Amino acid sequence: MKGLLVGLGGRARSWLNVCNNNPNVELVGYVELSRDRREAVTRDWNLPPGRVFPSIDAAVQNADADFVCDVTPPAAHEPVAMEAFQHGLHVIGEKPMSDTFEAALRMTAAAKESGLTHMIAQNYRFGAVPRTTRRLLDEGVIGAPKHAVVGFYKAWASRPGSHYTTMPYPLITDMGIHHFDMMRYALNREPISVYAQTWNPEWGWHAGDAGHTAIFQFEGGLTATHHALGSSVGKSSPWNGEWRIEGPNGSLTWEEDAIYRTASRPAKEPGRRAIPLDKPPLQGQDALLAEFVSAVSEGREPECSSQDNIKSMAMVFAGIKSSQEGRAVEIAELMSSG
Question: Is the pTM of this model over 0.70?
Answer without folding.
Answer: yes
